[in-house]
Amino acid sequence: MRRTLTLALVILTAIVLQTTVFADVRLLGAKPELLYLVTIVIALLEGSSSGAVTGFACGMAQDFLLNQPKGITALTLTLLGYAVGVTSQYIVTQSALVPVVMVALGTLVGVLFNRVVALLLGQAEASAYFVVRIALLSAVYNAILTPIFFPLIRRLTQASTKQRVGRW
Length: 168
Description:
Layout: H1 2-19, H2 21-24, H3 34-46, H4 48-65, H5 72-88, H6 97-120, H7 128-160
């Protein structure tokens, strides 16, 4: 129960920050995708199943709270969370650059996938150049924000899990 409330609070905080603070702070016209960042970080920390569930919750929250076409973001973030979680099993280094690189690559692939699905469903009318430019800039923006948000999310997820005590 505590874990579910913690994840819900993280998702709600990310949506509020994305729509208020970061809506006006743009990097060459691109805004950060905080829900992509949250999904990728949770998938890195806890694996594919938690990443997929978090991605689905983030996607549905964004789709319903921001009045977007329903399901496109949920599909994107669910697949992204699962893919990053599976990939994280094969990463053996403890480098501080791993989350930054994974968030950047995940955001790039996720935004591109999201726009391709939206285009196939008739929801997007942007040129390929614009989509690639926004995806690259959003990836850079999320990579810049990762050193700030990764430790916070890691601490919150560790604090929300029960610590097992072994007895003799």
